[in-house]
Write a structure and sequence with these properties.
Length: 255
């Protein structure tokens, strides 16, 4: 554990050392997220509400989504790169160290641009989430659970590359869960809605957490924690078994 904390401190220090680049990258992402806010505000200004969702509820959804994605893609950014590194044979440096490969790989790299997502999500929650002590505790809990789910899902889809020999699965999973999670789950119907609760669990990284902040339900919270634990376990198992099929590419990388 001490080794992982030291590795994460080094990764954060490395990102912070380039302060101008860090601030620039964060600003770009914040502006990008603000465009989504403007879109939804204008949309609900015209339609009022949609399937029980209004502008405040959707902005709260975005605050959860961007905060959770900011943690995963900012602090554990290699979760998105598992498939690429497996295909390129770029895990040699990790496997040569006396540490658990997956935890070390996840904390080894910080992506400054996505730290902007996290800052944006926290700020948006403070504006639209009525941050009482209870709301703050629930928000922190659901963001953590959603981040665990996103990380597990990305590792799981990325690990397909160990078996398929192609890394597109990880990228498809990345775009699918973030894009679909940006919309309220109730705008979908039929098979698409079922998919968002199962194959691509986007409902559990945005809509369900937002509902818990608005109205806490212990049973719904248990579902969120259970699904997050399920995908975290599945991702860990897939990565561990995938390493048995890993072929070195003699690529020595610090990433």
């Amino acid at each position: 554990m001490n080794g992982l904390l030291a590795t994460m401190r080094n990764a954060l220090a490395e990102a912070a050392a380039k302060r101008a680049a860090l601030l620039s990258a964060m600003t770009i992402m914040i502006v990008n997220d603000a465009v989504w806010v403007a879109f939804w505000v204008l949309f609900f200004h015209r339609v009022g509400h949609l399937h029980g969702w209004d502008s405040r509820r959707v902005l709260l959804l975005l605050s959860v989504m961007t905060s959770a994605a900011g943690i995963t893609l900012g602090l554990f950014s290699n979760a998105r790169r598992v498939g690429q590194m497996a295909v390129e044979g770029a895990l040699d440096a990790v496997l040569a160290l006396p540490v658990q490969p997956l935890p070390f790989l996840l904390v080894r790299r910080v992506e400054p641009v996505n730290i902007g997502d996290f800052a944006f999500g926290i700020t948006l929650f403070c504006i639209v989430g009525h941050p009482t002590p209870v709301h703050i505790v629930v928000f922190a809990g659901v963001v953590l659970a959603a981040s665990v789910l996103i990380t597990g899902f990305l590792v799981l889809t990325g690990s397909i590359a160990f078996f398929a020999g192609r890394g597109e699965g990880g990228e498809l999973g990345f775009h699918a869960i973030l894009l679909l999670g940006s919309y309220p789950v109730d705008v979908f119907a039929g098979a698409a809605k079922v998919m968002l609760y199962t194959v691509v669990p986007a409902a559990f990284v945005s809509s369900i957490p937002a509902r818990l902040v608005l109205s806490f339900d212990p049973a719904r919270a248990a579902w969120l924690v259970g699904i997050s634990a399920l995908f975290a376990t599945a991702g860990t198992v897939a990565f561990t078994r995938g390493l048995r099929r890993y072929t070195s590419g003699a690529v020595w990388t610090r990433g």
